[in-house]
Specification:
Among the domains are: 1-116, Serine Threonine Protein Phosphatase 5, Tetratricopeptide repeat (Alpha Horseshoe), CATH 1.25.40; 355-464, no CATH class; 465-552. The chain has 26 helices and no strands. It has helices spanning 5-15, 20-32, 39-48, 54-71, 82-92, 101-118, 126-134, 139-157, 162-193, 201-221, 230-249, 257-280, 289-301, 311-326, 342-354, 357-371, 376-384, 386-390, 402-416, 418-433, 440-455, 466-479, 486-503, 509-519, 526-541, 547-550.
Length: 553
C-alpha cells in the first residue's frame, strides 16, 4: 500500500463522519486492509501529520493499536513484516513532540505494547532514546518521553517469566539513578515555585508525577531487595520528606482545580509506593516501619493536621498502617525462639515499641469521636436516598472509601491489641449509654461507639453481659422517639444483629422478635426499618433459631 496514502486517508475521513452509510463502507474498507503490507506504516504517517483533522488522526492511532494487538506477534497469521516493523519502531521514537495529549497517550501505549514483544533484542535503542527524551530541555518532549517510559516500564514490569524479570532488573539498574535524580529536581522545583504562581507549575507537577510512577514500578519489580540498593533506600526515605510540603501546597492551589487534583493524586501515589514495597518486599520494608507509623499516625490522628487532609489520602494512610499490623512476615511464632528470620523479630519489636497504650488510646478516641461520626453528607444521603444508604458496603470498598476503611482499620487494631483496647471501649460505652443528652452531636457520638461495639462483638465476648445490656439499656434506646434518635434506633438494632448469634440466650429471642416487629412499622424511619429487617434475617438464619419462639402466642 505504499502509494495508497490518499485512499487510506479518504477511508479514515469517511469513518470519522456522522453519515452511517459512509461509516459502514469505510469500516469495511479499513478492515479489509488490516493484513495488507504497508497499511500500518500509512496509518502512522497519517497519525503523525499534525495538519490533519484530530478525529482522523485519532482514528488512525486506534487502528494502529488494534493492529499491533492482532498482528505484531511473529507467530500469528498475516503478521506485520519484519522490515515494516523496523521502520515502524524507528518512526514511533520520533513522536515525542505530539501536542494533543490523547493522541500522545495512544502513541505511548502502542510503544509499550511493541516493547513487550521486542525489547531488548529487536529494539535495543528504545531506552537510550527515551532517556535522551526525558532529559530534553524542551518541556513537551520531556513530558511525552516520560509518559512513554511510564507505559513501557509498566508493561515490562508485568512480565513474570524468569528471563523477563532478569532483563527488567538489568534495565532498572541502568536507568533508576537517572529517573530518581530527575524526580528530585522536578519535585523540588515545583515546591519552590508553587508559592510564586509560576506559569510552569502544571508541567513541573506532571513530570514529577510521571517520574514517581516510573520509580514506583522500578523499585518493587526491578530490585530483588530494594533495602540493599542505596538509590532505592534514598528514594523511599525522600517520600516521607515530601508528604508534608506537598500537603502545604494544597493551600496555594485552592483556586486552581486541575493543579489541586493532580497534587492530591501525587500525594496518594507517594503512599501507594510505600504500600507496594510493604506488600511485595516486606522484609526490605522493615527499616521503614517506624517512619511509616510515625508519619501516618501523626497526619491522621494529631490535632495539628485535623481538617487538613483529604479523604483519599486518609484512606491510604490507614490502609498502610493496617498493612503493617497484619503483615504475616512481621508476626513471630508463638514461641519466640521458633522464629527463624531475625527481621521478623525486629519488625515485631518496632511495632510493639510504637503502639504504646497512650498511642493506642489516642488513636481509638480519634477513631470513635471523629472518624466514626456520621457526617453531614451521610445524614443527607440517609434522608435523600435511604435504600442506597442502608445498603451494605461490602467487598473491597475499604480500599477507597473512608467509612468502611476506618471500620476495617479499627477492627484490625482491636484484634492486634485487644487486651489494651477492650477496657477503653467498654469504658467509652458506659459513658455514652449513661448520657441522656438529646443533643444531635451527642447522639452521633453514641452511635459511633455503639458501632464499635457491634464491629468488635467477637473480641468483646467475655467483657459484655449482652442479655443484661439488651434488657436494661438497648431496649430502652429502641423506644426513644425524640427528634434525631432514629440514628440510635438504627444503630442499636444493627448492633443486636451483630451480637444475636454470638451471645444472646434463646430466652431473649421472643423479646427480640417483638422489638423488631415494632421497628418494621410503616411510621418508622425507612433506614431503621431496613436495619430491623436485616437483623430479623440474621436472627432467623442463626443455627439456634426456634420456629416455636417465632410463632405468635
Amino acid at each position: 500500500m505504499d502509494n495508497h496514502y490518499q485512499v487510506v486517508l479518504d477511508a479514515l475521513t469517511k469513518a470519522s463522519s456522522q453519515n452511517a452509510e459512509l461509516l459502514k463502507v469505510a469500516e469495511r474498507q479499513l478492515k479489509s486492509w488490516e493484513t495488507e503490507r504497508g497499511f500500518y506504516s500509512t496509518l502512522l504517517t497519517i497519525a503523525c501529520d499534525k495538519s490533519l483533522d484530530v478525529n482522523i488522526r485519532w482514528l488512525s492511532v486506534l487502528c494502529i493499536k488494534n493492529g499491533v494487538d492482532r498482528y505484531w506477534r511473529k507467530t500469528v497469521q498475516n503478521s506485520i513484516a519484519s522490515d515494516e516493523k523496523n521502520i515502524f519502531r524507528q518512526r514511533l521514537l520520533t513522536s515525542f513532540n505530539e501536542p494533543i495529549y490523547q493522541i500522545a497517550l495512544q502513541f505511548s501505549v502502542i510503544i509499550s505494547k511493541i516493547a513487550r514483544f521486542d525489547f531488548p533484542k529487536e529494539w535495543p535503542e528504545l531506552f537510550p532514546t527515551l532517556l535522551f527524551g526525558v532529559q530534553s530541555v524542551e518541556e513537551l518532549q520531556q513530558l511525552r518521553a516520560l509518559l512513554t517510559m511510564h507505559h513501557v516500564v509498566k508493561s515490562l514490569a508485568s512480565k513474570r517469566l524468569t528471563g523477563d524479570r532478569r532483563i527488567f532488573q538489568q534495565l532498572t539498574h541502568s536507568i533508576f539513578a537517572n529517573i530518581l535524580q530527575l524526580w528530585i529536581n522536578r519535585s523540588k522545583l515545583f515546591l519552590h515555585q508553587v508559592q510564586t504562581g509560576s506559569c510552569k507549575l502544571k508541567e513541573l507537577l506532571e513530570s514529577s508525577f510521571l517520574t514517581l510512577k516510573i520509580l514506583r514500578k522500578l523499585v518493587v519489580n526491578g530490585f530483588k531487595d530494594c533495602s540493599k540498593e542505596n538509590d532505592a533506600v534514598n528514594f523511599l526515605s525522600l517520600i516521607f520528606q515530601q508528604i508534608g510540603p506537598f500537603l502545604e501546597c494544597r493551600a496555594f492551589l485552592q483556586d486552581r482545580e486541575q493543579l489541586l487534583e493532580m497534587c492530591e493524586k501525587y500525594l496518594v501515589l507517594l503512599i501507594k509506593v510505600l504500600r507496594d514495597v510493604l506488600e511485595l518486599q516486606p522484609f526490605a520494608f522493615v527499616q521503614f516501619i517506624r517512619p511509616t507509623l510515625e508519619c501516618s499516625v501523626t497526619f491522621c490522628f494529631s490535632k495539628e493536621f485535623e481538617g487538613r487532609l483529604f479523604e483519599r489520602l486518609i484512606v491510604q494512610f490507614l490502609n498502610l498502617i493496617k498493612g503493617v499490623l497484619l503483615c504475616q512476615e512481621y508476626k513471630p511464632a508463638k514461641l519466640i525462639e521458633d522464629t527463624k528470620n531475625p527481621l521478623t523479630l525486629e519488625a515485631h519489636k518496632i511495632k510493639m515499641e510504637f503502639f504504646t497504650y497512650p498511642v493506642l488510646s489516642e488513636i481509638c478516641h480519634q477513631l470513635l469521636s471523629r472518624y466514626f461520626l456520621l457526617s453531614e453528607y451521610d445524614i443527607a444521603s440517609w434522608e435523600n436516598n435511604p435504600e442506597e444508604f442502608a445498603s451494605d458496603e461490602g467487598g473491597e470498598s475499604w480500599k477507597f472509601s473512608l467509612r468502611p476503611c476506618t471500620e476495617v482499620f479499627f477492627l484490625s487494631l482491636f484484634h492486634e491489641f485487644r487486651n489494651l483496647l477492650t477496657p477503653l471501649v467498654v469504658e467509652m460505652t458506659k459513658n455514652v449509654q449513661n448520657n441522656g443528652s438529646r443533643d444531635f452531636i451527642d447522639i452521633l457520638k453514641k452511635e459511633a461507639i455503639y458501632n464499635a461495639v457491634g464491629l468488635a462483638a467477637f473480641d468483646l465476648y467475655d467483657e459484655v453481659d449482652f442479655d443484661n445490656w439488651f434488657t436494661s439499656v438497648l431496649l430502652h434506646e429502641l423506644k426513644v422517639k425524640e427528634t434525631g434518635y432514629y440514628v440510635i434506633r438504627r444503630r442499636v438494632i444493627w448492633l443486636i444483629g451483630q451480637w444475636v448469634s454470638i451471645k444472646m440466650s434463646p430466652e431473649m429471642r421472643p423479646l427480640l422478635y417483638e422489638v423488631i416487629l415494632e421497628l418494621l412499622n410503616n411510621e418508622e424511619n425507612l433506614v431503621v426499618r431496613l436495619a430491623a429487617a436485616n437483623a430479623l434475617k440474621v436472627a432467623v438464619d442463626d443455627f439456634e433459631f426456634s420456629t416455636e419462639q417465632f410463632l405468635p402466642v
